[in-house]
């Protein structure tokens, strides 16, 4: 059965669409050569199943691992950690007689650590793979050998297949459009996932294939496509279609890219050209990187340091062991006869002291291995997983409207969230809601609309004023009530409130005839298409959100656009004379579409009074110069309103019209038709020149003000992040004008900020492009960009010199377009471009391709050497997310590609504030404290072994029982440190958000700097000295038992070990800021478990318990000396840290110390009056700015 097709609307007959038809260009001569060798047999996919024409399948996977490479790749990831390599070597050597303990005690923890980490990596990657599988198993209709369309999975598509895609479905591969539900083969496509733009793009088929309307028409359809090889260029395509022995040129206008969506078109037919990872969107992605946090990388350096210390002390011990061994037989006497020098082994031989010293060195390397904490890695993995669960469960980051919580897709980067220096953000769908709203307008010199924009609220907050309830600049009426009388439900795209206009009240205005013409232009001058649903309500599909907002605004005021045909537009409009709604039809003669080079759009229509009208809307920069002398009546007032609207961050569009004479139109139309049908190379230039010729002598009606609606809380979030010292760059595929307006709306750009604009939109470059000399264009573009960058740096330096002379400082915002960015990212310019960008307060990159976004991210990451975070919501952001240190995906309404490739996902941009300032700060602080404490407790423990060995003539004898050694990091000290990593808070979440300056601790890496790390290590050495020497001096040669026996080896070991367990756990109690019952349980429970273990283990037979046999119950517990020494030594070991912290908080407090002190003072004193609080707040802000 033939499908129903839309008739009557042949947009290809109008100028704006007909001029887009492809023509053979210079690039088409490359077909068949290198880079342009792809051959596609349409409707014959079996020809691509073997031989040189076999292409990739349509499977797409974004995972890091596969079934085949998981084990080797995951093992490689684990043994990138230096400590794991060390313990692997030690595990192998521990099977030899050199080991001071059993092999199992070393090998088992290593296998546990590596196994647990690999399992975690596998689970996280499997989640990504499941999302890929869901995408690959989507359904699409494919033309089969039985001459019908049947459903199949995306992954089974082949190059050459004919597919049918219906409205609101995504394209499963890169397709060449053959035909559509429109008779002339056009369709509308939304490319949100590719370039971030929500406006619809027009695509059209070749006329020769637009007749393919049903299943039967494809039965005998055979064609050959020759085109470029797969590449990442989203904005270009070169190919030819060979059909019925003729060749037809193909361009990007004929291509439908994977990831984009069909809109406003019932269905299309297309042929598959590129599949899977050959598609342009996948070519713009990079392989998922193996990301490691900066703290983890620094841990490797610390391990190197500890390993060096291990070698040094092992070497020192071996040297002394060799000296002592050699002395044992000096002078023919046995000095240490109890070692039996007459009955030696290779491990102890006074005659071969050097060899014995070497073997002792190997033994010492294993003995002092406790300096390097193997359980650190598994403890960190456990903590990070639990931290991720808390992020996932945070109710304050749950978006109830869409039922989307925050998600941590990997736990490897939790602490990186607390060290972000630069955020690189997409715009559309990330900062905005993908909607434009008509909020204000100026008609006949009078401003209408009382809405408050986000920019106006931000300005009020910066000035310290209360945000007004209604905008004073939008009303010229004194004492006018700002509340709108229109109490209808909210309408998407329309947020206009003014009782002088709404509900037909505009007919009472002094210039009601101009108001009528103004909204009539909005209702007619567009390319939108009305759609009527089952309830009879009309909605509009437009090429841009702005255009839809204009049509909706006209409808709400009383000019309802109802129907469009090929040659006419039907309106229901309110007549200001009769005050009744009437139906009016306007004959549509020409559409001169909006383009960035023209910055305006016009239509020529004939009304029912037979008048020829030229209706136009455009940017103020081009429209005021086209007004007639008599059409400037309201120019000054309108310009004044435009200035105020611009300050409010609104998008401006000037509305004008003029009447045309019959002779003038006929003369122009004749020339215009000749230009359109011209086959010369300069056809487009002729057409633009004729459009420019007619678009003059307008009469000014007024201006519109559209708000590109931000997501809730975006300006506040950006302001808080800026206060935290985080720089924000915006990388968007949108036009420069759009990006700049959003920059103002979200407070990235401000009115007092000077703009440095780098662009190639200049007459000289345009002239060279028309000549077509590519080398000359490249050279001129490079020189232009280089000069603009140089001038920008010079301008900023000049302003800095002026500031030093006492003048007020000026901030700068850098704005650069895609073409300029392409040149700026080349090797010989990227350094100077970055130098300019980094000294600007804000950076906005416009018309940036996905590849450029990734390259900019790489540049910032490599040049700053600090943590970068990329945030986006579309497939065009995937490369950027993967390139950044942290990728955050917005789980919005447009696909899940960004979320699948991200490390963290949130539903709204505003949640980034809590993710970084709260969870980021907590995770960074917890992990930093946890690692420092780990090294402290292992050094404190390990160095007691070294002091004891020195005391025992470096004999290799351990101070403790083997099981004491094995259980130290497993049972007696592991749980408190995990509790620290999961629960500790220096300040509450509310205070983290209230004082963003706290985030500086992470940006400046204050908590994991080398001085702090070495300080904790030094504390560990001091503790070990105090524990060993105070214990030995207090107990050796003292009567310990009731029968007068002195302390033996077993009792000394138990006492020292008890002091170590108490000291490191009490040190934990001193370090914690936020106690919960879990921390109390783990700290005091770990100490209690040591005593329980001593009792149970000591009760075992002597052949099992060895040196621990009843040592606690019979020797230590009954002795008061044991308990007194423990108390004394523990207090002494804690005094150095306690004294240091007291001194630090008094004389050099950190950020969190200041906030804690401030909170304590606030709790212990009544609050100050609000007036004084405001003054103190302003004073604090000034001091902070001065410090920065």
Automatic annotation (TrEMBL):
SUPFAM superfamilies xrefs: Calcium ATPase, transduction domain A, Calcium ATPase, transmembrane domain M, HAD-like, Metal cation-transporting ATPase, ATP-binding domain N
Membrane topology: Multi-pass membrane protein
Positions bound to Mg(2+): 426, 428, 873, 877
Record Pfam families: Cation_ATPase, PhoLip_ATPase_C, PhoLip_ATPase_N
GO cellular component terms given for this protein: endoplasmic reticulum; plasma membrane
Catalytic residues in the record: 426
Parts of the chain that traverse the membrane: 106-123, 302-323, 357-378, 934-954, 966-983, 1013-1031, 1051-1074, 1081-1100, 1120-1140
Domain P-type ATPase N-terminal as annotated: residue spans: 40-104
Gene3D superfamilies registered for this protein in UniProt: Calcium-transporting ATPase, cytoplasmic domain N, Calcium-transporting ATPase, cytoplasmic transduction domain A, HAD superfamily/HAD-like
Residues engaged in binding ATP: 426-428, 547, 594, 617, 651, 732-734, 847, 853, 876-877
Catalytic activity: ATP + H2O + phospholipidSide 1 = ADP + phosphate + phospholipidSide 2
GO biological process, alphabetically ordered: phospholipid translocation
Annotated P-type ATPase C-terminal domain residues: 899-1149
UniProt keyword annotation of Magnesium present: yes
GO molecular function: ATP binding; ATP hydrolysis activity; flippase activity; magnesium ion binding
Cofactor(s) recorded in Swiss-Prot or TrEMBL: Mg(2+)
Keyword Metal-binding: yes
Assigned keywords, A-Z: ATP-binding, Magnesium, Membrane, Metal-binding, Nucleotide-binding, Translocase, Transmembrane, Transmembrane helix
Function: Involved in transport of phospholipids.
Entry's family note: Belongs to the cation transport ATPase (P-type) (TC 3.A.3) family. Type IV subfamily.
Protein name: Phospholipid-transporting ATPase
Source lineage: Eukaryota, Viridiplantae, Streptophyta, Embryophyta, Tracheophyta
